[in-house]
UniProtKB/TrEMBL annotation:
Keyword terms: DNA-binding, Transcription, Transcription regulation
Position of the signal peptide: none
Domain HTH lacI-type: 3-57
Record InterPro entries: HTH_LacI, LacI/GalR-like_sensor, Lambda_DNA-bd_dom_sf, Peripla_BP_I
Coiled coil: none
Domain of life of the native organism: Bacteria
GO molecular function: DNA-binding transcription factor activity; transcription cis-regulatory region binding
Protein name (Swiss-Prot/TrEMBL): Transcriptional regulator, LacI family
SMART domains per the UniProt record, alphabetical: HTH_LACI
Alphabetical list of Pfam families matching this protein: LacI, Peripla_BP_3
Amino acid sequence: MKPTIRDVARMANVSISTVSRVMNAPESVTKDKRQRVLEAIESLNYHPNALARGLIFKKSQLLGVLIPDIRNPYFGEIIRGMEDAAKQLGYNLMIYNTDRVPERIISYLDTLNKQQADGLLFVSDYVQRQYYETMQACGYPVVLVSTVSFEYELPSVKVDEEAAAFEAVSYLIEQGHQHIGLICFTLPDPISGQTRHDGFVRALERNNLHHCASYVEFATHWFEEAYAATSRLFDRYPHLTAVFACSDEFAMGVISCLHDRGIRVPDQVSVVGFDNLRMSWMTIPKLTTIAQPMYAIGWRAVEKMHEQLEFGEAAVLREWLPHELIVRESTLPMFHRPQHRE
């Protein structure tokens, strides 16, 4: 039979509360009692029950994670970073798919409260007022992951997506491209759509390429939608020589659509993605893209949660991690293109 805290207390001839203090605040227990408890724990091979400890100290060591869709490989890398950090810091994760459905999100927020979760990691979604009010009512700390709120004082960790998109499009312009299209998340998506669209427009304006501002088609999240959006874009603007796609999956949809239309990448059209998913260097051609530090975002988010739980607040409210332009084979300078499309 598995030993209990009562067994430890009985063997050490101390109270249950003394055993608890030895495990969680040993300096508050006299040396003699502390030694007896430690010897009893070792003798019985006792491992404290996490839920029981939570009931005593009002901590469950559980962190809730709300993500839009686990099928998206972008979230997989973030969750891996979260998991590794949580293991190191002594937490467990509970992951919920929301599909960005408000009713489901509210329901999960309530569920986490009933399960006495210590905190919430809210991933890649817009913090609507009803979400914020529910979070406040539940009383647990929140960290925004790969998203940010300027309306509410919630700690967050992400990259500066507007600046990253600006760098991607500026790179294409430096390569001599004057007709650049955009496959973008639907607007006004405040998480990735609006910010990356704004970076695209700013790069055009900086370089007096205002005519490109209308070279835009929209999709929601998936390869198939990006494929269809690319078809619409090139039906309207067949003279494009470059495309900036707002995700790597979108970029793969672009490349596939262009291949089916007999347009070669990068010989005739250069393509830049966003994220640097693992499969971005498995494509043919290998994808030039903006790299987000996805693992580091997940890891840092758990660290920020730990800061709140241990010290009452995060050291930095809104934290911006660096991005990087990774140049591979899907882009080519205009003057190096072996054949121009009429």
